[in-house]
Design goal:
It is built from 13 helices and 4 strands. The chain has 325 residues and is mainly alpha-helical. Helix 4 packs across helix 7 and helix 8 crosses helix 10. The longest helix is centred in the N-terminal third of the chain and has 24 residues.
Length: 325
């Protein structure tokens, strides 16, 4: 009986398709770093041309803290969640670079307000996560300002919102209101990561979930994706903004925006024409709007002030002499 040829032919085909061992080892990252300028003698072309980009995973420090609490990075779910936000925000180049420039403008005001109200200064990064420190930021749901207050919540914390003014856009008053909320939430939860989560989900929502799941801390709590990511994003932003060089961002001190310098006056009567008001004080309407983003009814260039009320108005610091006249 003749042996079939099919097994023999199959074996022969397999041997003919087996790839040869490479004559040189595969390239490693250091090849691009150390040998990128080597050239072939015969062709004059780079032996190991540098790739278009060399992307690596952003570093996760061995110890990470937030508001005095050590983040349990030994848990794979915690580490991976933080690493995800580090990847997203490290490579969100235009936004992250803008934040790095902007953060020093507002850091002194926010950190002092937080400190004076016994709130950890790490909550600066909550404002970064909320709005990228934009006083005029508006969410799809109608939240407004650097701290993204909804109108109803703003009124609970004494932020005036009406036809003439929207104090959600005032950096000083909105920061003071935010610290009041944060303190109240800490009294409720006695846990700063839960306080941060409640800023996104609400105190009632977090309290109900803690009771339903019978846990007492953020890291054991199963949350909706938005709130879970929210807290890790705050922590990731803290890591990047406090050590930007470790994440590939290099800015000279002069490239960071300086805090605004201004003087304040108290106004208790209507200003019928803000353009004329600015000119009288040797500035411009544009400068007034930059320093006082809480102006609301500006289409008519006027500021209405209710009876028995007064507003603090900021003017460029160079105007101090003219105000003495």
């Amino acid at each position: 009986m003749k042996r079939p040829l099919l097994p023999f032919l199959s074996l022969l085909f397999l041997f003919s398709c087996t790839p040869e061992e490479p004559s040189t080892p595969p390239l490693q990252p250091q090849d691009f770093e150390d040998r990128s300028m080597e050239v072939e003698v015969e062709t004059g072309t780079p032996a190991h041309p540098r790739p278009p980009q060399y992307v690596s995973s952003p570093p996760v420090p061995e110890v990470v803290t937030f508001a005095g609490d050590t983040i349990p990075l030994h848990r794979h779910d915690v580490r991976e969640a933080l690493e995800y936000e580090l990847v997203v925000n490290t490579f969100f180049h235009s936004h992250t670079m803008t934040i790095l420039k902007e953060v020093e403008r507002w850091r002194p005001l926010i950190e002092k307000t937080l400190h004076d109200n016994l709130v950890p200064v790490d909550f600066l990064y909550l404002a970064v996560a909320e709005s990228e420190l934009d006083n005029n930021a508006v969410s799809f749901a109608g939240a407004m300002g650097m701290w993204q207050f909804m109108k109803s919540t703003a009124e609970e914390y004494d932020l005036e919102v009406d036809r003439s003014v929207d104090m959600r856009r005032d950096p000083k008053l909105a920061t003071e209101a935010a610290t009041k909320y944060l303190r109240e939430a800490y009294v409720e939860f006695n846990d700063w990561p839960l306080v941060a989560a409640s800023y996104n989900r609400g105190m009632r929502g977090i309290k109900e979930l803690l009771e339903e799941q019978q846990v007492d801390n953020f890291f054991d709590l199963h949350l909706n994706k938005e709130t879970a990511r929210y807290v890790y994003r705050i922590i990731a932003l803290k890591l990047i903004l406090e050590n930007p060089e470790a994440y590939g961002y290099f800015l000279k001190p002069e490239e960071k925006y300086k805090p605004y310098t201004f003087t304040t006056i108290v106004v208790d009567e209507d200003i019928d024409n803000l353009v004329d008001f600015a000119k009288r004080h040797h500035t411009t309407y544009k400068e007034l709007r930059i320093l006082n983003p809480w102006f609301n009814n500006t289409s008519k260039y006027e500021l209405e002030i209710p009876r028995n009320k007064a507003y603090e108005l900021r003017l460029p610091l160079v105007m101090a002499d003219s105000l003495q006249e």
